[in-house]
Amino acid sequence: xxxxxxxxxxxxxxxxxxxxxxxxxxxxxxxxxxxxxxxxxxxxxxxxxxxxxxxxxxxxxxxxxxxxxxxxxxxxxxxxxxxxxxxxxxxxxxxxxxxxxxxxxxxxxxxxxxxxxxxxxxxxxxxxxxxxxxxxxxxxxxxxxxxxxxxxxxxxxxxxxxxxxxxxxxxxxxxxxxxxxxxxxxxxxxxxxxxxxxxxxxxxxxxxxxxxxxxxxxxxxxxxxxxxxxxxxx
Length: 234
Prior knowledge:
Elements: E1 3-5, E2 12-14, E3 18-20, H1 26-35, E4 44-46, H2 47-66, H3 71-82, H4 86-97, H5 100-112, H6 115-135, H7 147-233
Antiparallel strand pairs: 1-2, 3-4
Helix pairs in contact: 1-2, 2-7, 3-7, 5-7
């Protein structure tokens, strides 16, 4: 198998992975030239090395345009290099953060804000009033004005309110996490599109070079054929 030596790392790669420096975009070429002064238009590097410098170029551009890369952007760049999905990682992190108390708070808040709870509580109140006022004729365990019932309602309200507030705070946290996740997905999409443009530009330039090379070979062949015809005619 034919190989070539990369001008960047000095490692041997298969010829099929070779990329000519003359086919690179000027921005990528200048970036490589900055780290490797001996790198010129006649040099070659592998496609993996080219992708590495593409990602590095994108990161440096983000630093120049926005400022230093924060943790989210670093995570996005890392996910691109590892071919990971941000949404999957975020979902796994959310599941790990869930505690038993948080799950209970969510369940209680969901039940407390449902028609099932409202109708059940209305039935409970009516049953309590009917039993004490009409069946026991106000001589039962909680006669009118239902002081025990008022105490129970106060305790339920006192306990339910902080649980609902706890769930609301957790919902706000989820909304912030969802917004952060959307930002990361959008940022990754932008980076992927930039890399895709780089790849398309490279393919187009590579195809143009191959077509020009074919045309040169065809032209030389035509000249050879014409010279042979002229020799035979003479």
